[in-house]
Amino acid sequence: MTDPAIIPSAVALLAEVRRAGGYLTPNPNGTLGVDLPPADMQRLVPLLRQRKADLMVLLQRPEGRCPEGHDPYYWQDPAGAWHCGTCEPDPRAARMRGVTLAVLGERAFTTTPPTGDLPKPGSWARTPAGAVAELVLYQANGGEVLMRELNSGRLAWCAPEQLSWEMDWGWAS
After folding, report:
1. N or C: which end of the chain has fewer CB atoms below 10 A?
2. Model-level pTM?
3. d(CA 126, CA 148)
4. Is the dihedral of CA 127, 133, 134, 136 positive or negative?
């Protein structure tokens, strides 16, 4: 955001909060919970106050059927907007196929790389057994990654250092 005199839209402001590593939470009492890194508080809080009403609407999960009449199944995109899962299927849903509480076990997990040396979701690797697998999600501390084998669809947790990542395969020119 370059000009502080211009108030960004609620969507742009929410995206800026997410880029800063922050979160906004609509509270039942009509207030907006703000979790931002200290360096961004002074810059963003005045803008958040000015767009509070729009942000509250944007962050509220829709109730009931969508405008097209579909059963209530909604998902939230990274900018915070809600979408009907029937009208606009969540593009992340296919990647999460088969991930259950049993698969997660007691692991704290994340869908974004917890360390800078881990590849992005959807990256490919060879397992120690030689199977080609897709990265699905991460243990929150980065100690393991959940991989889906290409041929069988089987999910398994692996230590990242035991995998041979696609970027290291040495493709012939």
Report:
1. C
2. 0.52
3. 11
4. negative
